[in-house]
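Below is how a single chain appears once it has passed through the pipeline. First comes the sequence as given, then the structure the pipeline wrote out for it. We keep one example in the README because the format questions we get most often are answered faster by looking than by reading.
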Amino acid sequence: MKILQVVPFFAEKRAGEVNACFNLSKQLAHRGHDVTIVTTDFELDNRCVNLVTNAGARLIPFHCAMNVQLLLISPSIRKWLVHHIKAFDIVHLHTWRSYQNAVVHNYATRRHVPYVLQAHGSGSPQTEKRNLKRLFDWVSGAGLLADACRLIAVSEAEVVQYVDNGADKNKIAIIPNGIDTSRYRELPPRGQFRNQYDITTEKVILYIGRLHRRKGIDFLIAAFDSVARAIPDSTLVIAGPDEGYSRKAYELVKSRGLQDRVRFVGFVDDPRAAYRDADVLVYPAEQEIFGLVVLEAIMCGTPVIVAEGCGCGNLVQAGNFGSVVRYGDVDQLETAILHLIQDSNESREMVRRGKRYIEQNLAWNLITQKIEGLYEEATDC
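Resulting structure:
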């Protein structure tokens, strides 16, 4: 098949949609498909570009002429689409509200080229940029959902988001995010992350993700306050790019007198090193459609704790490879952290079960097969 992938940016630090587009495109190219990725030059990650092009896919970055709160305007894509959109058998739109999707939707529908839409959680009921989102939905967003041949949700939580935004439930297919298991065959040596950030305590509790109010960081800090008293030789590491919540998180840490016990390290280039040196990963987010870091941690040998609001919580329970706690229940989270830190046998068994479940159900080659099937269905739309 001749497949067009559309994503507004192509930088590893943007996680979610970039990770999916990157790995899916590599797998599709390996399986003999003709894959083209269109994106913008905003924060373009040359390492990712080289990896995906070396795998056999083409990547075309159009110039970002304007950035309106991450609505990346790239007018030059229009001329390219006029000459090329008809050549594709299927289009895969990543995220929902993007300038690129709006333009591709316009040309694809006019030229009768089917497309699938994967929102990657962008249908979440967030209050940020509310007026901009309403304007986009009025102009193009509703049409994007209505005209899609199929919609991909990574979890039941995302199905609800689609339906709440007016999507036809019969069009939705649940296909979880995949994980590149080959990246975990050789891991960084233990101690690398600790040495880099001069972490000397015996125990490390780790959070990796965006610093955003919905990620449950306040919930985690409150639970760590008790953990720190129970295990004095412990550190909470909070890693990830700031999305407007770092100041509040710092204030919470300071108000509890934990300045010397909590480390904010920002974006981590290779999170595998952080997982390797952590005793437990905690991902306490609410309204989260998936949570790939949970799977990454397991593949690095680190036990995990997630909140019920995390979309991958169902997978954790299905594979019995982690603890699931009620969002906001500080006592339950504290108990779960202490249990996994203190019961090394149970932690090792969780990791063993998790690796097996991931390799048998969530490896990217398996996920790609499912998406290929969805493409075939969509071409008959």
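The domain at 182-361 is CATH 3.40.50.2000 (Rossmann fold).

See the next section for the split statistics.
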